[in-house]
Amino acid sequence: MTANPLFGLNRHIRLPGPLALDGGQSLAPVEIAYESYGELNADRSNAILICHALTMDQHVASPHPITGKPGWWMDMVGPGKPIDTDRFCVICPNVIGSCMGSSGPSTMAPDGGHWGMRFPVITIRDMVRAQAMLLDQMGIERLYAVIGGSMGGMLTLSWAATYPDRVQAAMIIASTARHSAQNIAFHEVGRQAIMADPQWRGGDYYADGQSPDAGLAVARMAAHITYMSEQGLTEKFGRQLQNRDAKTFGFDADFQIESYLRHQGISFTDRFDANSYLYITRAMDYWDLAEDHGGVLAHAFTGTRTRFCLVSFDTDWLYPTAESKVIVHALNAAGAPVSFVELTSPFGHDAFLMDTPGLDRVIDGFVKGGGQ
Fold first, then answer.
1. Which positions are annotated as binding substrate (predicted)?
2. Which residues define the annotated binding site?
3. Rounded to an integer, what is the distance from CA 211 to the centroid of its chain?
4. Is the pTM of this model over 0.85?
5. Helix (H) or strand (E) holding 125
6. Looking at domain 183-282, which of 1.10.1740.110, 2.60.200.40, 3.30.420.40, 1.10.260.40 is its CATH number?
């Protein structure tokens, strides 16, 4: 294998030329922050692209530089793991619009000021186009596999539909082909919480460092509920009180679940940007793959030779199994090779990030069969 100086390192790359966006605007310059693990082989045919979820980032298998916590998919990515970095070169880019180094509202615009709300509204397909430009720059013409969960699954589907000749295999975990009215509604609650925070100031809060943390924390709390299941909440918290023997008859966090959500909200503000939350949730809400193909989802995959695997979880009510089956049926109608599995887990939507029995075996089997 060729030497790869990028192993386990967080790198930035500036993409040439403007990036044409679905909204009719263009973005320039475009910077992508990414991490890579493992080495590219001589013909660059062993690259696996991992697409992250809404609040995740490129630190898939290395400690987060702000929180110090382990990479969000450490159990799946690494030497001898299901996504084996001894065999594959694994690349995980931070999506544009986010806040961990790729171009977004918190980065600098050409005029020397922060983009803020001047940053153009983007789509899932725009994120994918930026990633394709990154791979072009790296000299990677075809991917052994693209793998993503949640929003990452949307990017994976968009990759397969937009660049079918560049994707050998695609794994979509706990995702959907379009954002539902219910999910748009949850996102709108979060956006309004941010914009109602007096510190938001139309998105121009970078100069003095006074961010709309209260609004972002509430947005995170509301979203985090959708990532869990009723079963998981009941088993973990029930109606247990938080460090007290009796109710206070006040508005402190009497219950453990209240304390947990407050902690999730506050800690989230340490590592995420409020404007990025607005932009990425909007991109997810605009996601409707069939809409881009005459309203027929199967048309997105016409003639594809990509091998697909869909994974869902029985307690996921954010993107339930029925959503995955819609994709499977469309792939069947298009004549695409596809497998599907529903796994049992108490963790709800977040099951793809947790120690869910069977998920490692499914991913391992998918990766090992990617070249067939």
1. 220, 350
2. 220, 350
3. 23
4. yes
5. helix 124-138
6. 1.10.1740.110
